[in-house]
Write a structure and sequence with these properties.
Blueprint: H1 5-11, E1 29-34, E2 42-48, E3 56-60, E4 78-84, E5 90-91, E6 93-97, E7 100-104, E8 111-117, E9 134-137, E10 141-144, H2 146-149, E11 152-153, E12 161-166, E13 172-175, E14 178-183, E15 186-191, H3 194-198, E16 202-205, E17 209-214, E18 217-224, H4 232-249, E19 258-266, E20 276-279, E21 283-289, H5 293-309, H6 320-323, H7 336-353, H8 359-373, H9 382-387, H10 403-418, H11 425-435, H12 447-454, H13 457-467, H14 475-480, E22 484-495, E23 501-505, E24 510-515, H15 521-526, E25 533-537, E26 540-541, H16 547-557, E27 563-571, E28 577-585, E29 588-599, H17 605-615
Helix pairs in contact: 4-5, 4-7, 5-7, 7-10, 10-13, 12-13
Length: about 625
């Protein structure tokens, strides 16, 4: 909304360009960033600071931010940090760590300034996962994860922030942060404290946005697709059906009044080597390959479902470690099974319940997660891993999306059984959210006892044995309750493409052979090479949307001894491709199939009833 000039004058008596202020005390940070003044891929940040007390003050950039569970050290990307008094005289500044700057004579301090290098193309060790990073592409795209641009003074984390961003008139800033003023070239945002600010990313680019209102919740989708392959309208259509299902799954309403999907697409992998997203309380940031939209559709649906469910955990249900998050010396909660595991499980369970995924595909997802969880240390209590995920057990963190989701699955089914179908995991999460809530955290060591009070003694035993203890999850017994067989090991004969590891090259839009480790006799016979990009399989041209279908059809319709012809593109040293036809006869290979998850042939009526409750609304 535009405001009349006289009202603007009353609300903002300070000029937007002012660099000094009066001697009047203030408790507000006033941050100014001009996106029009990029220098050497950097942006300058000017901050009029709150009134300080004492001889020295300490300005801090985050070492880690919520939702990442890895050390980032955003101070690495800051240069030319300076401090000034009201007359623009310099004050002494002393770096005391990569993320901390000490300022002397802070009772005179009025302003600080520094330059920010973006993380997307800074060739440093320990690169930042792009959804938690920053991007500065002059006149094209500015991804402002606020914690990468703005820090805070120690002891003044709870002071409010006013953020003034100047930009060209053809750019739009998508965010869930409260916008208190805007015109064609200026946005002014307000944040009640640093935690709220760090929780609110902004992306500026040429506007490609779509809006939707679901039961009073305002949904905004903003897409940056440099080659125009993906539109916000397409994303909104995919997200709309997911949000409708999530609303039903959460009991008929969404617990936020607004939510923003910020989607950055790239034709190439970033320096972190990963794709994915980072959740926030009212938004999420995606970094995805710029490929055919239909190829991205399932990824967008799955990832958006996961990230959106974080509005429940940890927004409405979290421990003191999250409520009082320490950006410099963080203490980790022992309940990652709740924050990430339950969220991941809810995202996939919701899809099968509301017909976005069929039962066979759902069981295949469970099987993949069981297999993936086997790669991690299953003798390590999940609560212990959670507490040490930043350092001692950092290599085990990814198990939160595997075993964490499986813990949630087992809890859900166990609750259905114990309540004879009248209670489940989502009901428990709703009860816990009512008991606690956004402003009332739980104590880490008390959560299991509270869950037992709300449910059954058997649930308390389950949590102590399988989450806080070292017992292996009882997949067979749990899945049997819903008429599903779990078989840990069996030998089968199967036609394969060679047991090769595949990946996708977004630049060429083709599937390629990433690794031949563990490949079988067929792979040796047909003479693959690492890096081969598959163009055709037995005459069927492969693309980004049909390759899984083509591989399944090959496996199901090919007999032993049939001729197999695979056309590949093999890169030369010059970078160009040679095109080759690889030939071999199909072979049946004896495989050891692990962790089969399959529907029982003759389940009981009780098993069928529980399965319906588990996988149907």
């Amino acid at each position: 909304m535009r405001l009349p000039f006289f009202l603007l004058f009353l609300l903002f008596p300070l000029s937007l360009n002012a660099q000094n202020r009066s001697a009047e005390k203030t408790d507000t940070y006033q941050v100014s960033i001009n996106l029009n003044e990029v220098q050497n891929d950097q942006l300058k940040v000017d901050i009029l600071v709150p009134s300080m007390e004492g001889d020295t003050s300490e300005f801090i950039f985050p070492k880690i931010v919520p939702g990442t569970y890895s050390i980032s050290d955003y101070g690495r990307f800051i240069s030319e940090f300076k401090a000034f008094d009201s007359l623009d005289n310099s004050l002494p500044v002393q770096p005391i760590s990569v993320n901390q700057f000490q300022i002397k004579n802070s009772s005179r301090l009025k302003k600080i300034s520094y330059w920010v290098h973006d993380t997307f193309d800074s060739p440093l060790e320990n690169p930042i996962f792009e959804p938690a990073g920053t991007n500065i592409e002059a006149n094209k795209n500015y991804l402002i994860n606020t914690f990468g641009f703005i820090g805070f003074f120690k002891g003044y984390e709870n002071n409010p922030f006013k953020i003034i961003i100047k930009h060209s008139s053809d750019l739009y800033g998508a965010t869930s942060l409260k916008r208190i003023y805007n015109d064609a070239e200026t946005d002014i945002f307000h944040s009640k404290n640093y935690v709220n600010l760090a929780d609110s990313p902004i992306m500026y680019c040429k506007p490609d946005t779509s809006h939707l209102i679901i039961n009073g919740t305002h949904i905004l989708v903003s897409v940056y697709s440099p080659n125009g392959l993906l539109s916000s309208d397409f994303v909104l259509k995919k997200v709309k059906e997911t949000l409708a299902a999530q609303k039903a799954y959460l009991g008929g309403s969404l617990p936020v009044d607004r939510y923003t999907f910020i989607i950055y697409l790239s034709p190439l992998k970033g320096i972190s080597g990963s794709w994915g997203a980072l959740e926030h309380s009212y938004s999420s940031v995606f970094f995805l390959p710029e490929v055919n939209p239909e190829a991205l559709a399932r990824t967008i649906r799955n990832v958006s479902a996961h990230e959106f469910f974080h509005i429940v955990t940890p927004l409405n249900l979290h421990s003191e470690e999250i409520q009082y998050f320490d950006f410099l010396q963080p203490k980790m909660s022992e309940h990652l099974w709740l924050y990430e595991g339950v969220t991941e499980y809810s995202a996939m369970n919701m899809q099968v319940k509301y017909k976005l995924m069929n039962l066979q595909d759902y069981l295949a997802v469970i099987q993949r997660k069981i297999n993936a969880a086997d790669r991690f240390n299953d003798n390590l209590p999940f609560t212990v891993m959670s507490k040490g995920c930043l350092d001692k057990y950092a290599d085990q963190y990814e198990n939160v999306y595997q075993k964490g989701a499986l813990i949630a699955m087992c809890l859900d089914i166990k609750l259905i059984e114990l309540s004879n179908g009248k209670y489940n995991l989502q009901a428990l999460i709703r009860d816990l959210s009512k008991l606690y809530g956004p402003n009332k955290p739980f104590k880490d060591h008390e959560l299991f006892d509270k869950i037992e009070e709300l449910t059954y003694p058997e649930i308390g035993i389950f949590l102590k044995n399988y989450v806080a203890g070292t017992k292996k999850l009882p997949y067979r017994d749990i899945l049997a309750l819903v008429g599903v067989n779990f078989i840990a090991h069996e030998k089968i004969e199967e036609i394969t493409l060679g047991n090769i590891t595949l990946d996708f090259n977004p630049e060429t839009q083709r599937v390629y052979i990433k690794s031949l480790k563990g490949s079988n006799e067929f792979a040796k016979e047909i003479k693959y090479k690492v890096g081969d990009e598959i163009i055709k399989l037995n005459g069927m041209e492969l693309n980004s949307t049909n390759f899984q279908y083509a591989f399944n059809a090959f496996k199901n319709n090919t007999n032993e001894g049939d001729k197999v012809i695979i056309q590949v593109a093999r890169r030369r040293k010059t970078g160009n491709f040679n095109y080759k036809r690889l030939k071999a006869k199909a072979m049946k290979i004896t495989l050891e199939k692990r962790n089969s998850v399959e529907i029982m042939n003759q389940p009981s009526l009780r098993q069928l009833d529980f399965r319906k409750i588990w996988t149907n609304p």
